[in-house]
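Lab meeting, action items carried over

1. Structure of the two-component assembly. Owner: GW. Status: complete.
Input record:
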Amino acid sequence: MSDFVFCTGKYDSGDWDSAPSLPANLIDSIARYTSISVAPSGAIVPLASEAVLEYPLVYLTGHLPFRFSEAERRNARRLVERGGMLFIDDHNHDIGGVFHKTAMEEIARTFSQPKDLPNDHQIYRCFFKFSDGPPATSHELNGWGDNLVHKNLQAVMQGDRIAVLYSSKDYSSEWNYHPDSKRFSTVDNTRFGVNIIVYALTR
Amino acid sequence: MRVRVEHVLRGIVIAVLAVMLWQSLRDQSGSGGQSVSARGLGALANWSQLAKAPERIHVRLDSVPSPLERAWLGALAGAGSSVTWSGDLPSMMIDAQPIAAPTGGTRVALAAPNGSSVVVSDDVGVIDTVRSLNGGSSLALTSLAERLTARVKGSVASTLPRDSVVLHKVLVIGNAGWESKFVVAVLEEEGWKVDAFIRVAPGVDVMQGSVAVIDTSRYSVVVALDGAASPYANRIIEFARTGGGVVLAPQAASLDAMAPLRAGTIGRPTSEARVIQASGSVSLATLALAPITSLRSDAVPLEKRAGAVAIAARRFGAGRALQLGYEDTWRWRMAGGDGAVRDHRVWWTGLVSRVAYAPRVSGATATTASDEAPMAGLVAAIGPMTQRAATSGLSGTPPDWMIWLFVLLALGLVGEVASRRLRGAS
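Predicted assembly:
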């Protein structure tokens, strides 16, 4: 059986590579906490390429306006319809920012309008327990971006499964560091990233 | 000389007429000890009304007789006649069994001569025409109306599907990964109720459903995907021994603890079908395959790829175990062509239904008699085919020799009259 490969989606319209250390950090966490067989390196795959369908979990981030090309939209739809999941994170942490506005429009255009995900959803307890819902990021607590602590993540559901998970919390900044630096933290802030991956692999 | 020939011809005509008259009177009298021969079974009633049953009856058949006609022939045989038959009849059979899957349906098995076209119908009309290969064919029907019939060259076999099956849940055991996720997903999409043990970390399982004791009162099938099944191996083996069905993916089959269930050893996997050149390039034919080698003597290969066994199954106790050689089948669903999602789902449910523990529930009593194997019924009623024909004919189609006698009579008469006319005699 093949290893799980963390996939960063490359899209044409913006800065898809704004969190280059995040994949390695989450891969480290998966290897550290779970028995999931994970590939040591992530993959960067153009969303416009059908090769992206080989990666049922695709991470997308950026600061700039976010818009799919026709090929990207078609593949994103196919990936989700076939049981895959997109995780899109706003690297600006700003609901008035261009990424948030354009990404929400694009999600609504491609799938449907995302809705608030209840904070007792399985994704908050499928591995680590987050009784208050999505963990706050240091950027939220420091008042950066829109100076808000976002209570919920948003999601587009397919049946009872999350098909598209959208975050305004800027996990891309929060988790974008070398894995060795975890030793300086009392609590590993990537634990929710482990939950996202475990959820995608088991639901 | 010419007059002498005419006399001979006239003599022949008179002699033939005498023989035919004698034969006719003999038949009318219904005297015993005679032999009768006929084409078809139109004369059955006549034979039964004779004062004394014919000593020998031979029928030449163009199609397999109906159950009533076979029973009639059997009764004549029981009444003392020696009944034989001949004819180029197709050996055929039809059988319909419920498919052990939530979507239901009926699997129809047909036996017919090689290369023949079998027309399958129900009470509503023709369903399909299939060609018999290697002596048979099969098809799966999602719905049908009452009686199923199969026709080959005028012969008809029929059956009435009457049973249904009881299905329990499927238990999927595997490590967290795309294969376990998508196996659970496809089975649920197809209507199976699925419990799952998904191993995420040592001592941490994600459980789906109310996972219960592994036995046939709760589960119809256990799907073991990889090493996560190792702690449950003894229970899975006992489950199979008592009638349960087990599907072993290559990594699970390679576990020492699963050795009793294996159909064969696991060969070296082929390279993964990773590179996607164009849409729909991933299919069952391009999936990585760990061929099943050194098959056990009781194992049956169910699918091969380039000569290598890809799927094999065997009976184990009262149950069945099916071993897969394909790895990472989820790639087929995700990166296959337009129909890949459906094909992958149907393929998986087909695997599971092949081994599922599914006790029968008999349905309502049939109101119409079925006739699954008419040829076998004919042989059972009056024995196998014989080429020996009876020596005289009775009502029904005249025997061959009577026809030749009539031809001789006609030729003799025409010859004699023509000869006389040509020489000017009246």
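2. GW to write a short summary for the group page. Key points so far: Chain A has a mean pLDDT of 95. Residues 7-202 of chain A form a domain with the Rossmann fold fold (CATH 3.40.50.12140).
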